[in-house]
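Progress report, Aim 2. The chain analyzed during this reporting quarter is listed below.
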Amino acid sequence: MVARSQDKVFLVTGGASGIGKATAVLFAREGAKVVIADVSQEGGQQTVQEIIQMGGKATFVPTDVSKAHEVEVMINRAIEVYGRLDFALNNAGIGHKTSLTHEIPEEMWEQVISVNLKGIWLCMKYELPQMMKQGSGVIVNMSSIGGLIGGPGLAAYGASKGGINQLTKVTALEYAKFGIRVNAVCPSVTMTPLTEGSVRDSPETFKDMIDNQPLGRLAKPEEIASVVFWLCSDKSSYVNGVCLPVDGGFTIA
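Predicted structure tokens for the chain:
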């Protein structure tokens, strides 16, 4: 696979935990040099240290993806350290408290859209010019099944993820001629630290989640990471503009 080359560089936002961390570790294990970005400096540095301890190469850049200057610094830092950018997982995102649409506070709406949707646009805004210079690159945007189906109480989150899917499709069409592929993954609920906290707080809700899953369990971060890796590899060289459900069959159930 392409990521085995020691010359390849992988960038992941939201790499301090969960899916982002699992994907960073996988790419490092496969030989890529990894740039980890996150608002959590402690978590981001921990991911870097884990990769270094396993013999990989990684660097951390503190980044709030909703701020253009910080995203630009992130990309410049990646190029400064490793000289190129081959793969990017734009993964940083947030959720919000369940609320009816008319009860969502304006500030909450703006925060979710700013991080989830604007953040991915900003990442691509600065990733794409570097990939164009190279004549190659793969971008994977982290969406959700919430961008494919309705989730009552999650209007802001669903709007942001639906927007990511459309942004992915448009960008894939625009940049294919430059040798750049752009896809999105749409996971169902995944057993991340955030989910584990919810499980502890509400065992009944967790039981409902499991009951609604055709495979009878939630996804593991490593399972989502493996799909991202495949999308970045030569094995998926003709896959472009796809918003791929990774949900154990949830959206068709």
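The chain is about 45% helix and 15% strand. The chain has a mean pLDDT of 94. These observations will guide the mutagenesis work planned for the next reporting period.
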